[in-house]
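Hi,

I'm pasting everything inline rather than attaching a file, because the server keeps stripping attachments. The sequence lines come first, and each chain or strand is labelled.
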Amino acid sequence: MRAAAALLAHPHARLVLRIVLGVVFIVASLDKTRHPLEFARAVSYYHVLPDETINVFALVVPWVELVAGVALVVGVASRGAAVLVGGLLVVFAIALVSSIVRGIDISCGCFSTTPGEGHKVGYDLVVRDILMIVAAVPLVLRGGGTLALDDRLRARRSGAPGGERSAS
Amino acid sequence: MPHDGNGLRRAIGEGALLLALSAVAAFGSNALRKEPLPLLADARVLALEVDMPVIYAREAAAAFDAGDHIFLDAREYETYRMGHIGGAFSVPAEDFGSRYETLGPLLAGETGVIVYGWASAPAATERLAKTLLSAGVTGARFLIDGYEGWLRLGATAEKGDDPTIEAPEGIEATDDGAAEEAAPPEEAS
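And the predicted assembly:
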């Protein structure tokens, strides 16, 4: 367990984690930012949010996915982006589990808003979600790792050469 | 994994900044859209692909209690048999032609008509609604929160066959075709 945590905390591992998470979130956001109405409808099927909040949620969440995804890929505000991504994943996990427990048979609306194209809600999606939460944790705690722009910006500000430990 | 409270606070600060940026982009891009998504309107109504007035389960339950409406279930017959609004007729859109002999006189009368299906799979109900409109049935309404909304009310549900249909091949009819009371729906809280 300790060895796995140390491995995930390695700067190179964090580079991989943030690129993978970032790309997943960018891809997930593309269809939804373009079709907020369809995404709002998909969200309504979960019966988790009060009706009045659904459209605002459906408008803002895909943009959070896109902005946080891009931030992770380039490594700017990596820890903040990982906080947002982790928070979203927790919200998604709650929505998934609650709809499974209540026996609601729906498409998840995760990557596509087109009815019938989406993945059916099930525990495999919860597992995928939890794996991504695990991937976000080292990024929240330790930052973006190798090649993160964060470190270069910080290094430039403090006048020291680049490197993730240089500014701390 | 070692970490410090200050760093975590900064991470949350960064997250808040990114969230604010996302919100600006979201509302900004929506405002620039040809048809902006209204913040409060029901997305299911806006996305409906048929020009039919809608009704919510709560109002439909009142119509059900008054007994002056007929309910048409647009889902597949097998799904209908597993549970439907009490007294509803099973009318998947493709079967409308063959059901017209039975239902035509009812639909032509003064009785209100409510079409429903799964709210989360509205295409089937939309097909039936379009079929009704093209058959000249006016005054029908679309149950926008669907059978799910009906179940959440804890309203009457039945299971079993539609007594006005001969059981399709391969489906065994239930006792004398009478609908039996369904178990309390799981979704009702």
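Chain A touches chain B through 49 residues (CB under 8 Å).

If the labels don't parse on your end, tell me and I'll reformat.
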